[in-house]
Design goal:
The protein is of the alpha/beta class. Helix content is 35%, strand content 22%. The chain has two domains: 3-45 and 87-124 and 280-352, 3-Layer(bba) Sandwich (FAD/NAD(P)-binding domain); 130-278 and 432-446, FAD/NAD(P)-binding domain. Bound molecules: flavin-adenine dinucleotide. Flavin-adenine dinucleotide binds at residues 20-26, 43-46, 52-53, 55, 88-89, 119-121, 139-140, 181-182, 283, 285, 321-322, 332-335, 337.
């Protein structure tokens, strides 16, 4: 296979910084290095930066994919010392200080570095049952969200065509596994769809009779939130018609159903659409670095980085975001990745300028957590203060719009949100094709 080193990298004599991953963490590294005399290469296997917190809105037809997935090149266009490379990293040679990656045409490239930041993120964990992913897909990429949108809307189309009550009920049952923020948000939106958006559009089925089940092996919804907010969220979900089943673990799933275990025993819920929103598994890049450096990982495969996010025994190598764990066990949220990205970018800038002192450890500033429950309802906790209902919802909207990249995307999102509030039945992004509906029937092949 042909190997090449991109031409500009060979010519430059400036220190080379390679950043693997153009997510929340990686982009912040590039931004923090914008005014430093270095050459930054931002390599990602997709050409876009993804705003994962709004994926569920794509999956339920509120937003179009483009608004939450701007081109990575566009995101770093003002960082003149940063270039982006579309390639999948599969090897890191710490001795030669080279990152190896494959381009979309399977061309092998080598990216030499003086400093390396790995920010490959994480995905859902199926707790040793990876085969479940084909029947209960998760939501991590923009493709995942589009596939889910096809499954969800396709299920209603097939329910409309069904001639048998049992079959119709299977299409109209939606099970969400995992009652963290993502699970709660998707379950809430599924309820909105069924009760308020779709009813007038169907002739043979009453979409309000759709069954939405949110299950979790733990004892509460939204585990990281204050108990008061957990109780509020559960009450709101139940008022919206979501069946919340706690202390209930998924034990098996196939195309037609999901098996669960609770104190009441084993049960099989017949449901064509299952959505996985549980567990965390670090990017395989974490295992690669752990093996190369002897750095320990936790049960989710996250690298135990040092207090300055560096990798012990690999000078100039840092790892940040969802794929790492720190002594203070920070949550896997965007704020942590962003703050670590800025911190590491500044640290590299200091080193390039000759600073050899021991760095001040990374300190996370918790700016609060929030989750939506459905239209006009959310919970938020900011510095010990808890907020619920419409006020929390407005706060959630403000924060999420402001963190989107680009004013065009912010305005587009605001427009779609206003439209979905004002004309609940006119949710704008429900486009699926015949194959979308077929995917519900043929879930194993489609995944
Ligand atoms: C559905 C969902 C909802 C969420 N909601 C919230 C929320 O409301 N609030 C919140 O704070 N957090 C939320 N999160 C978590 C938040 O998105 C993550 O904490 C954050 O994205 C972590 O940033 P990161 O840079 O570590 O990884 P990511 O943002 O995941 O970026 C990783 C990047 O690395 C790239 N990559 C991976 N492997 C390779 C490779 N081998 N070669 C090249 N590129 C590679 C990926 O393509 C990706 O672009 C949510 C996550 C999900 C999945």
């Amino acid at each position: 296979m042909h190997k090449s080193t991109p031409r500009r990298a060979q010519e430059s004599h400036r220190p080379k910084v390679v950043v693997v991953g153009g997510g929340f963490g990686g982009v912040r590294v590039a931004k923090a290095l914008a005014r430093t005399d270095v050459e930054v290469t931002l390599v990602d296997r997709t050409n876009h930066h993804l705003f994962q917190p709004l994926l569920y809105q794509v999956a339920t037809g509120i937003l179009p994919p483009g608004l939450i997935a701007p081109a990575l090149r566009r995101v770093v266009r003002k960082e003149r010392n940063t270039r982006t490379v579309l390639a999948e990293v599969h090897d890191i040679d710490l001795e030669r200080k080279v990152v190896r990656a494959a381009t979309p045409t399977a061309q092998e490239i080598e990216l030499p570095y003086d400093y390396l930041v790995v920010a490959g993120g994480a995905t859902h964990a199926y707790f040793g049952h990876q085969q479940w992913s084909q029947f209960a897909p998760g939501m991590k990429t923009i493709e995942d969200a589009r596939t889910l949108r096809s499954h969800i809307l396709g299920a209603y189309e097939l329910a409309e065509l069904a001639t048998d009550d049992t079959e119709r009920a299977a299409y109209l049952t939606f099970v969400v596994v995992g009652a963290g923020p993502t699970g709660v948000e998707i379950a809430g939106q599924l309820a909105e769809l069924a009760r308020h958006v779709l009813p007038e559009d169907y002739r043979s089925i009453d979409t309000r009779r759709a069954k939405i089940v949110l299950l979790d092996a733990g004892p509460s919804v939204l585990p990281p939130f204050a108990p008061k907010l957990q109780r509020y969220t559960r009450r709101r979900l139940e008022a919206m018609g979501v069946e919340v089943r706690l202390n209930t673990a998924a034990t098996d799933t196939d195309a037609e159903s999901i098996a669960v275990r609770s104190s009441a025993g084993q049960e099989r819920i017949v449901a064509r659409t299952k959505i996985w929103a549980a567990g965390v598994q670090a990017s395989p890049l974490a295992a690669m670095l752990a093996k190369a450096t002897g750095t320990p990982t936790d049960r989710a495969g996250r690298l135990a980085v040092g207090p300055d996010c560096s990798l012990p025994g690999a000078d100039g190598v840092y790892a940040i975001g969802d794929m790492v764990t720190t002594a203070d066990r920070l949550p896997g949220v965007a704020q942590v990745a962003m703050q670590q990205g800025t911190y590491v970018g500044k640290r590299i800038a200091d080193r390039v300028k000759g600073d050899t002192s021991t760095p001040t450890p990374f300190r996370y500033v918790d700016k609060g957590s929030m989750a939506t429950i459905g239209a006009r309802q959310a919970v938020a906790q900011v510095r010990g203060v808890t907020i619920t209902g419409y006020l929390a919802y407005l706060l959630w909207r403000y924060v999420h719009v402001m963190f989107l990249v680009g004013w065009g995307n912010r305005l587009g999102t605001l427009y779609d949100w206003l439209r979905s509030l004002r004309h609940a039945r006119n949710r704008g992004h429900r486009l699926i094709g015949l194959t979308g509906a077929q995917a519900v029937e043929e879930m194993p092949q489609a995944a």
